[in-house]
Input
Amino acid sequence: MGGRSLRVLHGALVGCRACPRLVAWRETVAREKVARFRACDYWGRPVPGFGDPAARILVVGLAPGAHGANRTGRVFTGDRSGDFLYAAMHRAGLASQPTSTSRDDGLVLTDAYIVTPVRCAPPDNKPRPDEIARCAHFLDDEIALLPEVRVVVALGAIAWRAVLDHHERTGGSVPRPRPPFGHGKRVPLGPRWLLGSYHVSQQNTQTGKLTPGMFDAVLEEARRLT
Output
């Protein structure tokens, strides 16, 4: 039932054109491409979540990468951020393989689901507050179809705020003052836990701000809390 409902939601989501700036950018990127992907047919639309409908662990990112998910149509797929994320999920026993290159590469997630609060690739990886707000109902609807989630791993401060906002919008209470984002931080939100991690972007992973060991520890904690 959950899987069928998610497919219905995803079908509606991929047709969204609510944010003119993001629509223009994602389609320009898909049309003009980059040299290394010149032969690829870009997805160029909003990107749905991906994973196990019975997941107890939800990973929340930021937005599709211009030449990653905006090209492949699957979240964190086809770029360096995804390489880091799925390798770690495979080590944690949450992914069937350590790579994610295309929608038909056979990757399966077990007990994990991945979503982003912004569904279209934004210029400079920086969505505006109004774009995050306009996309929020998709996050609410998708999480509502994942009833087994017990732990939410927020990748970065924007994801952290998006999860807290979602919790408030859906009737939950958030501690006051609001807990600030921090890597490895843990906050109870009703029946769930919110865990913070630095984003898996190259900006963090190539500088050593986020190492494989650091992220492995976050996923280990997520599994322990389920």
